[in-house]
Amino acid sequence: MSQYDIVVMGAGHNGLTAAAYMAKAGKKVLVLERKPHFGGGVSTRELLHPGFWHDEHSNVHIMIQGNPMLREDELGLLSRFGLEYIYPDLVHVSIWEDGTVIRSYKDLDRTCEELARVAGPKDAEAYRRFVKMSQTALPMLVSGLYSPPFPLGAFVAMMDQSDEGRFLLDLMQRSALDIVDAYFESDLLKLHIVRMVTENLQMPDELGTGMGAFVMPGIIHTYGCSMPKGGSGQLSRALVRAIEHFGGEVRCNAEVARVIVSGGKAVGLELTDGETFMARDGVIGAIHPHVLRKFVGETPEPVLERAERVTQSTFSINLTHMTLKERLRLKVGNDCNAMMTELMDFYSIREMLLEYDKLRRGEVSERLIAGGDNTIFDPSRAPEGAGVFYGVNFAPYDLHPGGSGSWDERKEEVADRALAQYRKFYANLADENITGRLIRSPVDHERDSPASFVRGDIHGCAPFFYQSAGHRPTPDLGSFRVPGVEGLYLVGPFMHPGGGVFGAGRATAIQMMDDMGIDYDKVCGRAVQ
Q1: Which pLDDT score, from 0 to 100, does residue 142 have?
Q2: What span, in angstroms and rounded, lies between the C-alpha atoms of 48 and 199?
Q3: d(CA 406, CA 442)
Q4: pLDDT on residue 141
Q5: Is 56 part of a structural domain of the chain?
Q6: Do 441 and 317 share a structural domain?
Q7: Quick one: 144 exposed, middle or buried, by C-beta within 10 A (0-12, 13-18, 19+)?
Q8: Domain boundaries, position 411
């Protein structure tokens, strides 16, 4: 039995973030990870051949750019622990099969010039006004993304006190499609915005997804869009360096079997081999609400029942990793390469919606793809001149026919159809340029992180309004605490503010410090101590 102040189950980036803050606060911290490597959904590994570095899950870091963890370098990740981000001028591009292109640059004026050419002057000016509204609201929205959330009722009551608040409340309850329909006329511009939002595993017409359509343009024109130099996993690597610098430990090949509860308090973690690690002050768990019963059976039954009713995202992804003999070339020219690249052969909202409808029926649409060659912006990811392909194809967890159990048999066939679609847009994606391929299905994602990516949902759970703010994932668990189990705190993509790379473990750490009487502002002076 080993004694620590804080023990953490799971070395995904959120668990590592919370651990790093608690270690900086002077706590003796241990992070336990089931897999032989840390990072969870934010990891970069040589999956196919030596020297080719693939992002296992997350690829582009958008929402974390507003986090004070980076903006104010609260942990020293940028100044001391080796994290470096690549910020291209061209943030987001939509490319159509006929050669039509819409480019979104970080610079708003340049973007509006582009939109005037493709979507028309009226929509270009509408987009400028839309982004300005988004940027005006960003300070308030951003301040709430990386801290413990308000209870949903209190949040709604507060928002209902002003015109601006009521405007945002309205957005939060609508769909992304509702928002673009209200502000723009051009279907191409609507497609450009909505396809970007659906990267968050949101259907275009699902209620409660409208805030993504409103916030994303403001984010990309304010903070830009980026990936860490060397791959997504460099964020996790920098967090591990910070934890170790502040006296903490990260241990891999350590699978947790349960949270140890005594007298209604979480007091440690037990591994599957029986080894135990005790915690004086608290336990942090990357434990999805659907599996809370498995790890913390002492949780009150009503809390568990509500946790097991949490709604997962409507779809997942079939992910293609490939190594390339030579770097990819877009048919429209590599000056169109952006940090986020959408590839489309449909030109109307109606046609796009028909493709998303297939996901609801258990079918995969090979037309719903995104991705490209990561070496375009970061040549260090492969040997000189070679490429690393990262390709997303939206896909249901319950595949028809056969259900989720048929993914192992069918994922290669699904990937083949997606590859044929990619070849419409890339000039040199023939078989002779592909030196290796690895497919990860929705079921593979769940196997990779069974305590977090339930039903292949790499974003934790659905981003609907009823699962937002202090109700994400449930009203019981929205404060990061588990009722009836004192000292147990949750962390992961299923918690506020949502899935993706947010650095959301910061909010868990703030809540823990508040409960322990630790002055967060004093701990997080603007320079590393």
Answers
A1: 83
A2: 25
A3: 11
A4: 86
A5: no
A6: yes
A7: middle
A8: 313-448
Which residues in the chain come in under a pLDDT of 50?
527-529
Q: What is the DSSP string of 219-279?
A: HHHHT--BEETT-TTHHHHHHHHHHHHTT-EEE-S--EEEEEEETTEEEEEEETTS-EEEE
| Token code pair at residue 276 | 């135990």
CB atoms within 10 A of CB 461: 26
Could you tell me if 239 and 262 lie in one domain? yes
Cα 222 vs. chain centroid, distance in angstroms?
19
DSSP β-bridge partners for residue 344: 96
Report the distance separating Cα 148 and Cα 151, nearest Å.
9
CA distance 367 to 417: 9
Q: What is the mean pLDDT of the chain?
A: 96
Give per-residue pLDDT as tens, 262-286: 999 999 999 999 999 999 999 999 9
**Looking up tokens 């793809």, which residue turns up?**
369
Q: 126-168: per-residue pLDDT in tens?
A: 999 999 999 999 988 888 899 999 999 999 999 999 999 999 9
Give the H or E element holding residue 30: strand 29-32
What is the C-alpha separation between 187 and 180, in angstroms, rounded?
A: 9
User: Residue 231 corresponds to which amino acid?
Assistant: G
Shared-domain flag, residues 7 and 80: yes
User: pLDDT (tens digit, 9 = 90+) per residue, 442-473?
Assistant: 999 999 999 999 999 999 999 999 999 999 99
Q: Do 383 and 318 lie in a common domain?
A: yes
Q: Is 438 inside any structural domain?
A: yes
Question: Which H helix or E strand runs over 344?
Answer: strand 340-344
Could you tell me if 306 and 318 lie in one domain?
no
> Would you say residue 52 lies in a domain?
no
> Does residue 103 sit within a domain?
no
Q: What whole-number distance in Å separates Cα of residue 58 and Cα of residue 225?
A: 13
Cross-strand bridge partners of residue 12: 39
Measuring CA to CA, which residue among 76, 484, 476 is closest to residue 246? 76
Q: How many domains does the chain have?
A: 3
- List phi, psi (to 5°) of 361: -100, 10
Tell whether 305 and 247 lie within a shared domain.
Answer: yes
Closest CA to 294 of 320, 270, 267: 270
Residue 289's domain is classified under what CATH number?
A: 3.50.50.60
Together in a domain, 79 and 33:
yes
Alpha-helical runs (H) found in 361-406? none
Q: Which amino acid is at 417?
A: R
Peptide bond into 302 cis (omega under 30): no
- Pairwise CA distance, residues 509 & 378, whole Å: 32
- pLDDT the model gives residue 140: 86
Burial (CB count <10 Å: 0-12, 13-18, 19+), residue 428: middle
Q: Domain boundary at 404, 430, 448, which? A: 448
What DSSP state is assigned to residue 424?
A: T
CA 283/CA 512 separation, integer angstroms: 10
pLDDT of residue 408: 98
The encoded tokens of residue 260 equal 């140890």
Q: Of 396, 417, 448, which residue sits at a domain end?
A: 448
